[in-house]
Design a protein that fits this description.
Blueprint (H helix, E strand, L loop, with lengths): L7 E4 L2 E5 L8 H15 E4 L1 H7 L4 E6 L4 E7 L4 E4 L4 E4 L2 H12 L5 E9 L9 H9 L4 H6 E11 L2 E2 L4 H12 L5 E3 L2 E5 H15 L5 E5 L3 E5 L3 E12 L8 E9 L5 E7 L5 H12 L4 E2 L12 E2 L5 E6 L1 E3 L9 E8 L4 E9 L2 E3 L2 E5 L13 H4 L20 E12 L2 E11 L13 E8 L7 E8 L2 H15 L5 E2 L1
Parallel strand pairs: 3-14, 9-11, 18-23
Antiparallel strand pairs: 1-2, 2-7, 4-12, 4-13, 5-6, 5-8, 6-7, 8-9, 9-10, 13-14, 15-16, 15-19, 15-20, 16-17, 17-22, 20-25, 21-24, 22-23, 26-27, 26-30, 27-28, 28-29
Helix pairs in contact: 2-7
């Protein structure tokens, strides 16, 4: 199933590889597609929403595991794990157990969905932080042995896609994995309606401190029920409503403080305000509008007006998502507040998260926008954030490299005209996904006799061959007819 030459040994037999090492090139896209489909199908609610929106009917309610979504793939002999981000894992004790269980059941091949998590011997709640730490760099064999896999769905068995009633799928999951220790069905009970789902929520979440519950019904739908989390953020921008909502706040742009005092854009909050608050907040925020190198638009394509970091608000969120359905990090811009110039300066994008179902709770006039009251650790306690400790000094981008530079001059009627052509490599194309091209070609054309004396033309490309061709074309067009080297 995998090109073994691409494996990186982590500890003992445990190794990882990139998704391109899979011999089945369609497997990773299939894992990503399943993850997207699952996200689209699952309705996220808090306990109040569950009471109002979960219909009558029979449900299978599972304890939500705080782990990393993975797909277990079995080829009749061996098993491996693949996550949507393209990390492949082999050689884990849980994979040996899964292969043994599936062989015993006479399964020739299988694709199984579940959560990779850590089993603590003391019964302590599993956290995704633990999974990430051990999976990346295990300290010893005992830590590797703690990794477990909670099965919650079957994607394929013996070459056939699994469809039909989930209740039937669940029976098959129990049949295959009930005897497992490291690989086992996620803890699940059968119940009815919102009342039954909320009773499971009270037991597993309120009483035991779990992450949430997942309720599945063939007739009623699939629901994820989680407690809401509250965090304090700085208001860094706002947008006004349009049409009949003009003169009222549409939403706020929020920032969270990193350890070095920089601010990272977290997202927006547009719900939870009263009509009076929308009018009063809009009026007050207009008084602290400021300049900014950074620009962003809201869901109505209205640009945010950036403000001085003076307000702190408390918001509640149902969840925070740190990865796209393809496993890529969710990157947000890091800004620095230049108080002397009263402007926001752009630093670069770094991984953060997206708040799910954010709601305004209240303005915190007892707090100020600083690295303590609006600290990023509020999020780090809930989800894993890569490069959490990166500071402004760490964020310096690679220096650009000038590849070609030509300056030509020409005199006409006693006036000197200048044309400059410069080609450089940014060296930033991998540092910031999509923010910089690999190559930039810039033409400056100055002629004092024109209505607009200074004109510019820019071409960009990620191909050295293409940008060189652009350069040659501009030389032929602009450096003929008496233009001499300066």
């Amino acid at each position: 199933m995998i090109d073994k030459s691409r494996l990186e040994i982590k500890l003992g037999t445990y190794a990882t590889a990139p998704g391109v090492a899979l011999t089945d090139t369609l497997l990773l896209p299939r894992v990503q597609a399943y993850r997207r489909g699952l996200g689209n199908r699952m309705i996220a609610l808090d306990s109040k929403g569950a009471k109002d929106k979960i219909p009558a009917g029979d449900f299978l309610v599972s304890k939500k595991i705080d782990g990393e979504f993975n797909v277990l793939v079995f080829d009749g002999s061996d098993a491996l794990l693949v996550n949507p981000g393209g990390t492949v894992r082999v050689g884990l004790p849980l994979l040996d157990e899964a292969a043994a269980l599936l062989k015993k059941a006479g399964i020739k091949n299988a694709i199984v969905a579940g959560e990779l998590h850590v089993r603590h011997g003391d019964g302590k709640r599993a956290r995704v932080h633990d999974v990430s730490r051990i999976a990346r760099k295990p300290a010893n064999a005992a830590e590797v042995a703690q990794l477990a896999f909670a099965v919650f769905d079957l994607i394929e068995l013996n070459g056939e896609e699994i469809g039909g009633a989930f209740a039937t799928t669940w029976k098959k999951i129990q049949e295959l994995f009930q005897a497992g220790e490291r690989v086992a069905p996620v803890e699940t009970i059968a119940t009815s309606g919102a009342k039954g789902v909320l009773e499971a929520f009270e037991k597993w979440v309120d009483a035991e401190g779990g992450e949430g519950v997942v309720a599945r019904s063939d007739e009623g739908g699939w629901f994820k029920v989680k407690p809401r989390h509250t965090i304090d953020c700085a208001v860094i921008g706002f947008a006004e409503g349009t049409d009949d909502r003009a003169g009222m706040l549409h939403d706020m742009l929020l920032g969270i403080a990193r350890a070095d005092g920089s601010w990272q854009v977290l997202g927006r909050v547009g719900g939870g305000f009263s009509e009076d608050e929308r009018r009063a907040f809009l009026s007050d925020l207009r008084d602290i509008v400021t300049h900014s190198e950074y620009a962003e638009v809201n869901s109505d394509r209205v640009a945010y007006e950036m403000v001085k970091p003076e307000w702190v608000v408390e918001i509640s969120c149902l969840d925070f998502i740190t990865q796209t359905t393809r496993g890529a990090s969710i990157d947000r811009m890091v800004l620095n507040w230049d108080s002397a110039a009263a402007t926001w300066r752009v630093t670069r994008r770094l991984p953060l998260c997206s708040p799910i179902s954010p709601q305004f709770v209240r303005r915190r006039e007892d707090k100020t926008p600083n690295a303590h009251d609006c600290r990023i650790d509020q999020l780090a306690e809930l989800v894993e954030i890569p490069q959490l400790d990166a500071t402004a000094a760490d964020l310096a981008l690679p220096t650009s490299e000038v590849l070609k530079r030509e300056v030509r001059v020409k005199e006409l009627k006693g006036k000197k005209m200048v044309r400059k052509l410069m080609l450089w490599k940014t060296n930033k194309e991998t540092a910031l996904r999509g923010e910089f091209p690999a190559y930039v070609l810039h033409l400056t054309d100055f002629s004092p006799g024109r209505k607009e004396p200074l004109q510019r033309e820019i071409r960009v490309s990620d191909s050295r061959e293409q940008i060189e061709a652009f350069y040659a074309d501009m030389e032929k067009e602009y450096f003929v007819g008496g233009w001499k080297a300066a």
